[in-house]
Structures are given as structure tokens and as C-alpha cells.
What we know:
By secondary structure, the chain is of the alpha/beta class. Helices cover 34% and strands 16% of the residues. The strands form 3 sheets. The chain has a 6-stranded parallel sheet, sandwiched between helices. Helix 10 links the parallel strand 11 (257-260) and strand 12 (283-284). The protein is elongated. The chain starts with a helix and ends with a helix.
Amino acid sequence: MQSLALAATMRWDQSSRFRDSVITPHPVLRHLPHLAQWMPNLPLTTVDSAPLPTENGAVIFPDILITCGRRMAGVSIALKRRAAALGKSIKTIHIQDPRLNPALFDVLIVPQHDPARGPNVIVTKAALNRLTKAVITKAATALPPHLQTISPPRVAVLLGGDNKRYKIAPKMAENMCMQLEGFATATGASLLLVPSRRCPPDLLGRIQNSVKNSICLTDGPDTQNPYPGVLGIVEAVIVTADSVNMVSEAASTGLPVMIASWTTETGRIAAFHEVMRSTGHTVTLARSIPKTKFPRLDENAAICQQVTALLSF
């Protein structure tokens, strides 16, 4: 999603177009991406992966390749080396810190809580996303009419769940339910629950049973994803602390953003939350809706300008 956000936001030449390729990297490149600089002809993908774009049986080398996450770093390095061996040039942009020498990429975009730094490294506060005021406003008009009549204050609750750091235990789910119930009782807010695919399935029912003014919003085969539109009809947002992406998207609205924790976060995500709090983009969930103004997090223009300069467009 971050790669698509950058591709869609950049002001490329009007004749340019971008293609979204979803692949499964080969385990060797996934776990040992640095090998690609010496052995670029290692297999790029697994046997059952969707193929890379080809023409006449050969991989198409794009002018610009945007990848995201450590597991895709080896593919980026290998393709750049393969192209160079054939006298072709690929400009590579990699998002998130792959824990490799930044010089292996033309541009490296990393969040502030990651350690990579260098002349070709762009540092951001948060994750790139495609949400804009226009996108949210348009999506809000497509919501079912009854959502517009829900009594204010209306608060969106973006619920994450299991991740690489922990699995949501019953006690953690119970604690989350208590936090949301306490908030709703103290504020009289109507909670619009928007679960991710990682959300514990029984948590939604527990929240709805304990919070009278709550409604669960999910998408289905015949319904539009309510998430972007919901952000256009609420007065504030609660986000669970497990996801940098969800917090970043919420902060891009300029609404009060309150962080609800499943457990005590540590390491890089704890550093991310500290940056977001210290810059006024988020607060810890309490039993009131903040009255202060929250600055809208919008780094897209600055990032695009820096990418353009580094690629010498």
C-alpha cells in the first residue's frame, strides 16, 4: 500500500504509467536480501508466486521500481543488477529500512523510528498512505444514509489485532473492551467499529454487547469498504497501537487521534508512537475527546519533492 501511495502521488511524466506487481519473493532473497548484490541471478520468486511482468519471455525492466519492506529488498537489488548487466538502468526506490547499505538503492524512504540514514535516505514521521480529504469526502457520500443520522459525538474505532510482535490473548481483548466501554460511557460517544482482518473475531461482539451505542462496519462482496468514508463523518478516531499504517492514515485526517494499547509496546513501534505524541498527532486514549487542534499529517508533497531531486528528474 505504501508503494502504491508513492506511485500514485508522484508527478511522473504524463506518458508514464505504473503497474502493481504482487509477488512472493524466493526464500533465499527474502531472508538474505544482501546476496542479491553478488548473485543477482538467484531465483526472484517462489514457484507458486504470481510472475513478474514479462515480454517475449524476458522480465520487463521498469524505469523506476518501487518496493516496500525487507522481504522485497532482495528483488529490487537483483533486478537493478540484472538490468545493469544488460546495459539498462533502473532507478530503485525502497520504502522501510531493509537493514542494508542505503547505497544499494537510489532512494531509501524510512520512518523516523528506523536507524538508516544517508545522503539518499528520506526520513518520514509515519507510513505513506493514499488518503486525502478528497478521497475521504467522496467515500463519505457513498455510505448508507442511516450512518449520517447516528448521534454525535461519533468516533471511529480502527481495530487491528495479531501481528509479528504478539497474538491477542483473551486478557488483552478484555482490556481493550474495557477501555472502549469506559470511553463511551464517559463521553456518550457513538462508536463506529472498523475491524481489520487481524481483529479477534469475538472482540466485536463483546464490544457491541458492552457499548450500547456501537455499530460494526465491515465490507463484503456486495458492499463498499466503509473505512475511508467513516473518517469523513466522525469527530474523532481511536486506533489500536499495533499498526503504524492505521495510525498514519488516521493522523492524515487532522481529527483527534487516540491510541488504545493491547499491551505495552516496545522497540521501534514504541519509538514511532513517541514521535507521534510529541508532535501532537496523537494522544493516549483516556475518558474524554481532546478539545485541542490536531495538526494534519501530510508528508506527501515534501517526500515527492525529495524523491524527484534524488532521481534528478
